[in-house]
Design goal:
This protein is α+β, with helices and mostly antiparallel strands and 209 residues long. The protein has helices spanning 16-23, 27-34, 99-112, 116-130, 146-171, 182-204, and strands at residues 8-11, 42-45, 56-59, 66-68, 84-85, 92-93. It is built from six helices and six strands.
């Protein structure tokens, strides 16, 4: 697809937010369990004094529709394991893959790959029902409350703690030090909280590109 670069800034895997999604091992949980995905290409409207979250669009490479960030918000932000469903043409918008998810899927492929096609068919049939109440494809994502951001940050930090302090030692045959859990737990929770609060500020900022 061709985009007017005077109107939109094109976001790909080279953008820092996309790179963070790819390399952060904690986000494998969001991708594999919750089904939260990010399209390979995102657009941010330029030359406008609107909050960042209201300037985000996801282009569908199949029908060229520009979807507002609100299309995959709320309950529709989850269960997108096979990609983002386009409610306009009913095709699947390709998404980037978290590196840890890729490794876990590759290792476990003998267990799930034989069932992939049947799972995808069942998943696809449910998408039209999930998106039938969508008001408009240009709908911006709703604003989350500070409480929701705080809870999300703490949950993110907890997931990071479990991965780094529990799962990673198990995978590398290292001894789990149960006596020293307090420091990494505190650090993980604080890091998750600070990161999500930074994202809250960033997504609501009104900076003209």
């Amino acid at each position: 697809m061709e985009f007017d670069k005077n109107t939109y800034k094109v976001y790909t895997w080279k953008n820092w937010m996309y790179l963070h999604y790819i390399i952060n091992p904690g986000l494998a949980f969001n991708e594999l369990v919750l089904g939260q995905r990010i399209a390979k290409i995102g657009l941010v409207e330029k030359n406008t004094y609107k909050p960042f979250i209201e300037r985000n669009y996801v282009p569908c490479p199949h029908c060229n529709t520009l979807h507002g960030s609100g299309v995959w918000s709320g309950s529709r932000a989850f269960y997108n394991w096979f990609g983002l469903y386009c409610p306009n043409c009913k095709e699947i918008i390709p998404c980037i893959r978290n590196a840890t998810s890729f490794i876990l899927l590759a290792i476990s492929s003998p267990l799930w790959y034989p069932f992939k096609n049947s799972w995808k068919k069942r998943w696809y049939k449910k998408q039209e029902e999930r998106f039938k109440n969508l008001q408009t494809v240009n709908e911006p994502a709703p604003y989350s409350t500070t409480k929701q951001w705080v809870l999300g940050g703490l949950l993110f930090g907890l997931i990071m703690f479990v991965f780094n302090a529990v799962l990673l030692p198990l995978l590398t045959d290292e001894k789990i030090n149960k006596e020293n859990f307090l420091i990494p737990l505190t650090t993980s929770l604080l890091g998750g909280l600070l990161f999500t609060l930074f994202m809250k500020w960033y997504l609501s900022s009104k900076k003209v590109n």
